[in-house]
Amino acid sequence: MAETQFDLEGFLPYLLNQAAEAAGREFAAAYRGRYGMTRTQWRVLAHLGRFGALTATEICRRAMEEKTGVSRAVQALEERGWLVRDALAEDRRAEALSLTPAGHDAYQALAAEAIRFDALLRSRLGEERAAGLAEVLTALIGAARD
Amino acid sequence: MAETQFDLEGFLPYLLNQAAEAAGREFAAAYRGRYGMTRTQWRVLAHLGRFGALTATEICRRAMEEKTGVSRAVQALEERGWLVRDALAEDRRAEALSLTPAGHDAYQALAAEAIRFDALLRSRLGEERAAGLAEVLTALIGAARD
DNA sequence: GAGATATGGTTGCGTTTGTAACGGTTGCGA
DNA sequence: TCGCAACCGTTACAAACGCAACCATATCTC
Predict the structure, then answer these.
(1) Which of A15, A32, B37, B49 could make a disulfide contact with B41, Cβ separation 3.0–4.6 Å?
(2) Does A20 sit within 8 Å of B20, measured CB to CB?
(3) Using CB atoms and an 8 Å cut-off, which of residues 101-120 of chain A contact chain B?
(4) Confidence class for position A3, pLDDT limits 50, 70, 90
(5) How far is CA B32 from CA A28, A120, B41, in A?
(6) Per CATH, domain A11-144 is 3.20.20.105
């Protein structure tokens, strides 16, 4: 029987990983280097900064992150004084997480960095291809939620 | 001053990561579940199966992988009997890595799995969008190599 | 309303990963 | 040819990650 012809360089999960790691590594310098943050911490910060108060579970669902990672990231951000927990009247198991003013400042600084970096990537690709890319990735993510 | 408006859900590194993790998690069941392999091990196997004998450094460069990760993956694949090291006459620091027949069999099985999964992803997206995605990702990866 | 079941969040532990330092080898310039 | 820098690959150590087990609370079922 003939050998299976497998094209590694056209394999979508491989390409996605390579592109994500390349982009991630490049951007990580902005938050790991300057703020000593983990990727998960940055994600939690970004979600709270963008969407306001959330519970840990909501962050998990939105960010497709493990609850244990979120738990630790929340703890780290809390110790840094960037985040506070508030009791929820309707469910005493859960906590409403929200950013302090200092946390919001950090978010603003990183968001500005992110906007710059995103613009750089989009200029590399051309705005049209970049928009198409974002659309296809979103579709892919949505399809995987099942 | 107005707040910086940052659109997390359109941020390309974020989308890339989400899509890559979603696709990777889904496919990982094929090699982690059935063969107990690490992602790096799978990558090393794939590169050797696809491109023949390589040195560890060449794999690092092609796969954008850390040399320490490759070192450990090679060791694991060697212990499993899927890979052999051959001395290189022209440079006694480096080793030529290549798959054994058993390793090649494993590669074939996983490649078949990968082809199936890739086809599934492409059918989800539609062939046209999938091809465009692959092209843009390749461009992004190429641009990041600088 | 009591017991079973599900959910929010934390902790513990083993695995994986990344950074830094290290032997061994090669290549280059003084 | 001697010394020195660069390079290949491994090891050591620390950080991060993921899974499973675990408390506390909430919900469901009878």
Answers:
(1) B37
(2) yes
(3) 108, 111-112, 114-115, 117-118
(4) low
(5) 28, 36, 10
(6) no
